Target: Protein EARLY FLOWERING 4 domain-containing protein
Amino acid sequence: MERRENKFLHSLQKSFVQVQSILDQNRLLINEINQNHELKIPENVGRNVSLIRELNNNIRRVADLYANLSLSFNKSMEGSEEGNSSGKLGLKRVRPIDNSNTLHAPQI
Model:
């Protein structure tokens, strides 16, 4: 089970690094698009079309990476469930707070 968790954590870290890299690239693209728009130089404004396409593709890539993370997480949880003979996920149960000893204001 520990090996599976390590594999999942490595995959998670790798995906987040990829996402951050794409988001950094998007920041640069947006800055260039804004500069081109402000300068209103015809060739630069025309270049914005390809920059916006690249930006849209990057957004799709980020969405795909998050979708893959979600699938990996679900598979990891299913694997944990199968690997645990008790049928539990191996997570600790959080106990509710016991308020029985708490003083309550009288109801009027």
In short: The mean pLDDT is 79. The longest helix spans residues 42-83. The two ends are 56 Å apart (CA to CA). The helical segments are 2-39, 42-83.
